[in-house]
Amino acid sequence: MSSTYSRLKHVVFGRPLPSERLEHERLNKKTALAVLSSDAISSVAYATDQILFVLGGAIGMAAVSYVLPISAVIVGLLVLVGLSYRQTVFAYPNGGGSYTVAKENLGEMPGLIAGAALLTDYILTVAVSISGGVAAITSAYPGLAPHTVGICSLSIILLATVNLRGVRESGAAFSVPTYAFIVMMLVLLGVGAYRYSSGHELVQLTAALKVDPSLAHKHAGMSPITGFALVYLLLRGFAEGCAAMTGTEAISNGVMAFKAPAQKNAATTLGWMVAILAAFFLGVSFLAQHYQVMPTTSETVLSILGHHVFGGGPLYYALQYTTFAVLVLAANTAFADFPRLAGILANDRFMPRQLAARGDRLAFSNGIIALAAVALLLVWMFKGDTNALVPLYAIGVFVCFTLSQAGMVVHWQTTRDAGWVWKAWLNGIGAIATGLVSVIQLVTKFTTGGWIIAAIIPLIIIVLRKIHKHYTEFAEEIKFSGQSPINPLHHTVIVPVNGITKATSGALVYATTISDEVIAVYIEVDKRDTQRMMEEWDAWDIGVPLEVVPSPYRSILKPLVEFVENLRMVTPGELVTIVVPEIVPKKWWEHLLHNKTALYIRTAFLFKPNVVVTAIPYLVGHAYRLREWMEHDQYIEEDIDAEAAERKGGDSSSAA
Amino acid sequence: MSSTYSRLKHVVFGRPLPSERLEHERLNKKTALAVLSSDAISSVAYATDQILFVLGGAIGMAAVSYVLPISAVIVGLLVLVGLSYRQTVFAYPNGGGSYTVAKENLGEMPGLIAGAALLTDYILTVAVSISGGVAAITSAYPGLAPHTVGICSLSIILLATVNLRGVRESGAAFSVPTYAFIVMMLVLLGVGAYRYSSGHELVQLTAALKVDPSLAHKHAGMSPITGFALVYLLLRGFAEGCAAMTGTEAISNGVMAFKAPAQKNAATTLGWMVAILAAFFLGVSFLAQHYQVMPTTSETVLSILGHHVFGGGPLYYALQYTTFAVLVLAANTAFADFPRLAGILANDRFMPRQLAARGDRLAFSNGIIALAAVALLLVWMFKGDTNALVPLYAIGVFVCFTLSQAGMVVHWQTTRDAGWVWKAWLNGIGAIATGLVSVIQLVTKFTTGGWIIAAIIPLIIIVLRKIHKHYTEFAEEIKFSGQSPINPLHHTVIVPVNGITKATSGALVYATTISDEVIAVYIEVDKRDTQRMMEEWDAWDIGVPLEVVPSPYRSILKPLVEFVENLRMVTPGELVTIVVPEIVPKKWWEHLLHNKTALYIRTAFLFKPNVVVTAIPYLVGHAYRLREWMEHDQYIEEDIDAEAAERKGGDSSSAA
C-alpha cells in the first residue's frame, strides 16, 4: 500500500531530487523579463477596470473622461518607484525583499510589518490573478460565468500541484504566456491607435448593449459631483487604479536569478518592465476613454476593447486566452515567493519550522499547500469576483514599497557609498510618495474591504511574534549547560501483565535486557481471576516478582499510576520505565477490538516525574515474526544462522 | 482541566462505585411486575393502531370490524407463548435469554441468529417506545407535533444519561409509571364498557373531524376486497398487531432478579403480565370497534378513545401522560438489556471486549452509548414516526421466540426431567406457532421495512463471526508456548541527535542507563552544519560515538532506517532501541511549531525487525522539570534530598 502511494506520488509530483540540484538556474534578460514581470504587466488586465468601476458607480459614463489623467498619475508614481527600486537592485545583489530590507535597516517591527503585508499580498496575488484570468475567459464565454468559482479553484489546485513538483521546468516554458500577452497587447493598442488616428468609425459591435443601464441612467439623471466630493472620488479611483503597480518589486527581489552581470541585467530588465507596464496601462486607459468603455460585472475592459478593436474574431479570442495565461503565470510567481518568504521567516523563527523544510522536489511543500488553501478560501468567500478582491490588494503592496524604500534611505546613510546623498533622496521621495498613497488607499478603501487588511496585518504580526517568543524561549530552555552528563542512572522496569502470553513474555525479555530490576504488575479487576494468574506465574518461574494491585473501581490506569508513585516515594529520584506490550492488528477494523492500553499508559505518565513508557509493538496476524525474542529465546539462538544466510541471499528488505 | 472534567462527570453521572456494589437488588412480585412488564404492557399503546392502519389503508372504515377478531387471535398466541415461557422460567433460574437458550441447546449459529435479532429488537424497543410515547404527547398537544424528532432525541439522551449513572435507584421509583398506566387503562376500559352496556350515546367530540378524509373516501368509493386478497390483508393486519407481544420474554430473562422463591414468583408474575396485557389489548380493540375509531398520523387510538370516553378532561390528559411514562420505562428496559447482552456476547468474544467492561458506575457504559446512538439514528431516519418504525419491530422478536422455544424442546430432550415429554410438546407447539408467525411477518411486511431486518440480521451475524474469528486467532497466536524465556539480549541503543541540548543529553543519559552500547546518529541535511556539530560533539567528550549519516534527499527518517538496517546486517538478531527525545509543548498551538519526529520514527520502525522506539518526553515551558536527569547529573545528586524532603512534606501529587 505504501509503495502504491509513493508510486502515485512520484507520478503526480515527480521523483525526489537530491539537495545538490538546488543550484539556481540563471536567467538571461529576456527570460527573466517574462518570469519576473508577469505579475506586474498582467495588472493591466484589471487595473483600468477598477478606476472605471469606482468612478462609474458615482458619476456614470462621465467617469470615462477621468480615466486617462488618473492613469497618467499612477504611471508617474510607477516610474518613481521603478527608479527607487533600481537602487535596491544594486544595493542587494542577493535579492532585496521588503522584509529583508526593512528588517536589516529599520529593525524587527518594520520588518514584521513588511513580512505580514507581503504574506497577505502573495495570497491576494493568487486570488486576484486567478479570478482576473477566469474573468477573461468568462468574458469571452459568458456561459461559463456560473462556474467561475469552480474554474478558479481548479486553476489554483493545478498551480499548486505544478509547484509541488518543483520549479525545474521553468524558464523557457514560462516565457511563452508573457510574450504572447505582450504581442497581443501591442496588436490591440496598435490597431486601436491606428483606427483612432485614421478617423475610422468605432466598431460599435456590442458595446452599446453592454453598458449597464443603471449607469446610463445615473449619467443622465444625476446632479454633477463637485468640490471635495469630486476630489475624494478621484482619490478613490486613483487608489483602486494603483493595483496596476502590484508586482513592481519582483525584479529587485530576484537579482540573484540573473546571469552575470546580474545587477546590471536586472536593472535593465526592471527598466523594460516599467516601460512596458506604463505603455500598456496608458494605452488601455486611452482606448477606454476613446471608445467610452464601461466594464460590467460580466465583461472586462480588455474584453470590451477587444470586441471594439478586433470585432470579436480570432484575434479577440487570442487576446482573452493570453490574458488568462499571463494572469495564471502571475499567480504562479506568488507560489514561488510566498513559500520562500515563509521559509525565510521560519529560519528567523517567526513561522513554524516545517515551512523552512524543502520537500522531495526541493520545493517548500508546506508553504505551497498553505498558500493554495488560503487562496482557495478567499476565492470561495468572494465567489471569484475580481472586483471584490482588488480593493484588498494594493494596500499591503504600498506598505511594503514604503518600508522597503525607507529602509534604503537608512541603508545609504549607513554605507555612505559614492553619491549616497542623492540615492537616499531618491529613495526618500519614493518612500514619502508611496507612504502617502498607502494612507490614501487605507482611507478610501477602508469600508470596501480595506478594514480586513487593516485588521489582518496586525493579527499576523501578533502571531509571528508569539511564534518567535515560543522558539526563543524553547531554545533558551533546552540549551545544555551541564558538564559531562552521561552517568547511567539506577533504573527499575515495570511490566503490566494480564496473562502469560507471547506479548507478555516479549515485554519481559525486553525489560530484563534494559534493567536488572524488573517487577511484573497484575491489575486485579476481578478477584476470581487472581488466584489462577498467581498459580500460572509461579509455575512459569522466571525469576521476576509479580505484584498484584487491586482495582476496586475497575480502572487499569489509576492503580498502575499509584503503584509507580508509591515506588518513587520509597526511592526518590528513581528512574522508572514501564514496558507495555502494544497489540498492533493487521486490519484497520481490528484496532477497534483491542483496548489502546499502551497509548493510555503513555498519556497517563506523560506528566509524571522520571517515568518513561516504552511500547513493544506486537504484530498480530502477520505471517512472520518481526520481533523474534517475543517467541521464545530458543528461536533466536537456533534461527540466527538461518536468518543471516537468508539475508545474505539478497533479501535485505523485510518491511511488511 | 482534567479535574474540572471529572468533577462535571461526577455531577452528571455520579461518583465511581466499587465493584462490590454489583450485588443484585432482589425485587418482590409487585415491583418486578412493574419493572419487567412495562415493555409488554405498554405495547397496547401502539398495537391496535397498527392493525387499523394497515386495514384502513386498504378497506377504509370497514377495517374496524376486523380489529377485534384479529386481536383475539393474537391474544391466543400470547397465552400459548406465555405458557411456553413459564417452562423456561423453571428451567433457567439464572435467566433464560433467547441467545443463551438457543446457543446452549441448538448451537452457535442459532444462538447468533437469536443474538443478532435481539440486538436489533432492543434498538427498536427504544426507537418505537420513545416515538410511541412522544406520539401520546403530540396527540394531546398537536402544536408539539413539528418538534417530534427533537422531543424523541431529548428523551433518548436523558434515558442514556440516567442509565450511565447505573441502576441503583430503580425498583420502587420504576413502579409508579407502570401502575399509573394500569390504573388509567382500567378507568378507560371501565368507563368505556359502562357507557357501552348502559346504551349511552357516543361522546362524538372530535372523532368525526379526526377521521382521515381519504379513508372515508376509500370506504365510500372502493370495491370490496374478497378471497385471497382479503386473507392476505388480514394476515398483514395480524402481523402488525403482533407488536403487542413484544416484551413478553422479559420475565423469563430476569428470573434471577426475583426474591426467593424466585422461579415461583417469576412464574406468577408472568401469569399476571399475560393476563393484564391480554385484557388491555382486547379491551382497546373492543372499544375501537365500538366507537369506530380510525387512528390518524397525528392522533393515536388511545388518544381518540380517551377523547370519546373522557371527553377531553383531566382524565384524558392523565391517560396521555401515563402512556408516555410507561413507554419511556419500556425504552429504559432496553437500556438494561442491550448492554447486558452485548456484554455477554463480548465475553463470548463475539463483540469488542470494551463492551464487557463496566464503567465507573458499574453500568456497561459503552453498550449504553452505542444503543442510544443507533436509536437516535433510527428516530432521525424515520422522523420519530411510530407507524413507520413498528413494521421493522416484531420480526426479530418472533425469530427469538421461535429459537428460544425450539431450544427448550432440545433442553427437555436432554434433561429428561419429570413430565419432559409434555413440556417438550408445549414448547414445540409454541415454537411452530411463532415460527409460522415469523414467516408471515417477513412476507407481509417485507416491502414496508421487513427487508431492512432481513438484511441487517445476517449482516450482524457476519460481523459477530468476523470478530469472533479475530479474537480466537489472536488468542491462539499470542498463546505462550516457550519454556523460560527470560534471558537478557544483546542490545544496542541509537540516539538521533540534532544538536547538544538538554533533550539530547536526557536521551543519552537514558540510553546509557539501558545499554552499554550507545551510538549517537546525526542526520546531515545541510553539509554546512556538520562541521560545527562534530566540533561541539568532540568538545563535549562524553564517550558516546557520533555517526554522521548523509541525507541527500533531506529526509530524516529514511537514512535512519537504512542505518539501523545496516547495523542489523552486521549483527543479525541484534535488538536495537532508538531513544528519541519528544518535545511536549505546554499549549496546544505550540504543537504545530514542532515536528512530530518521535511519532514519525515510531511509525517508521513499527514493521522493522527487532527494533523498539522509546520516546523520552521533554516538557517545554513547565515551571519544574519532571525528568530531572535531562538537566544534568549534578542536579539529580544535589536535589534528590531536597525533593525527598518536599515530597514528605505532603505534596505527593506532581501532575501538571
Protein model, in words:
- Two copies of one chain form a homodimer.
- By secondary structure, chain A is mainly alpha-helical.
- Chain A folds into two domains: 25-473, Amino acid/polyamine transporter I, CATH 1.20.1740; 491-648, Rossmann fold, CATH 3.40.50.
- The first copy, chain A, is 65% helix and 6% strand.
- A five-stranded parallel beta sheet of chain A has the order 3-2-1-4-5, sandwiched between helices.
- In chain A, helix 20 (527-540) links the parallel strand 2 and strand 3.
- In chain A, helix 5 runs antiparallel to helix 6.
- Mean pLDDT of chain A is 83; it is low at 203-221 and 632-656.
- Chains A and B meet through helix 18, helix 19, strand 4, strand 5 and helix 23 of A and helix 18, helix 19, strand 4, strand 5 and helix 23 of B.
Strand pairing plus helix content of chain A: what structural class?
Answer: mainly alpha
Main beta sheet strand tally, sense and closure of chain A: 5 strands, parallel
The quaternary state of the protein chains shown equals: homodimer
The SSE order of chain A reads HHHHHHHHHHHHHHHHHHEHEHEHEHEH
* Tally of separate domains of chain A: 2
Number of helices of chain A: 23
Strand content of chain A: 5-15%
- CATH class of the largest domain in chain A reads Mainly Alpha
Shape of chain A: elongated
CATH architecture classification of the largest domain in chain A: Up-down Bundle
The CATH topology of the largest domain in chain A, please? Answer: Amino acid/polyamine transporter I
